[in-house]
């Protein structure tokens, strides 16, 4: 199923949500027609599988070094803007799709883990309101990613870890 979800991620990143069909996933994965439908009966199930795979891959990448939290986060952001660009594009496409299809919002609850991690980080760094500050941190990081990926910042020089680290250090001042 990971191969199907990976194919779906690629399709959403390169063709948008309209390009995500069971047949297109079959073709992208190099499998016989009907293979995707055997695992993901509906479009909603296919999107859910895609989002679960995104969460799995992203959570595996988020390993923070307590001695260099800002550098660790900057490294993750740099990967998500470069080698993980397709995954980041697919995640944002799913988030935008959910604004028009409320039934998909529950699927995106996989994003709760990063908020919980941010709250724990805020508490460890001395925040007096970790829930609020953790939420602000996630919002800042998502905004930075979006800006550098598809916003006006996408026309700037490629993101580099040092610049990202400076931005993250500022955001970590609670």
TrEMBL record:
Molecular-function GO terms, alphabetical: DNA binding
Keywords of the record: DNA-binding
Domain HTH tetR-type: 1-58
DNA-binding annotation, residue ranges on this chain: 21-40
Keyword DNA-binding part of the UniProt annotation: yes
Entry keyword DNA-binding: yes
InterPro entries reported for this sequence: Homeodomain-like_sf, HTH_TetR, Tet_transcr_reg_TetR-rel_C_sf, TetR_C_31
Pfam family of the protein (one): TetR_C_31
Protein name, entry field: TetR family transcriptional regulator
């Amino acid at each position: 199923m990971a191969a199907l979800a990976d194919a779906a991620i690629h399709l959403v990143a390169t063709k948008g949500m309209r390009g995500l069909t069971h047949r297109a996933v079959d073709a992208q994965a190099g499998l016989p027609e009907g293979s995707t439908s055997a695992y993901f009966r509906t479009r909603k199930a296919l999107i859910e599988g895609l989002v679960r795979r995104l969460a799995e891959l992203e959570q595996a990448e988020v390993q923070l070094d307590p001695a260099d939290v800002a550098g660790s986060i900057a490294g993750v952001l740099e990967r998500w803007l470069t080698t993980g660009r397709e995954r980041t594009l697919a995640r944002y496409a799913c988030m935008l799709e959910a604004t028009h299809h409320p039934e998909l919002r529950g699927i995106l609850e996989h994003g709760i883990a990063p908020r919980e991690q941010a709250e724990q980080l805020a508490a460890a760094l001395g925040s007096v309101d970790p829930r609020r500050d953790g939420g602000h941190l996630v919002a800042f990081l998502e905004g930075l990613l979006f800006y550098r990926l598809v916003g006006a910042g996408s026309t700037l020089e490629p993101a580099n870890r040092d610049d990202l680290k400076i931005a993250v250090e500022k955001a970590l001042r609670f």
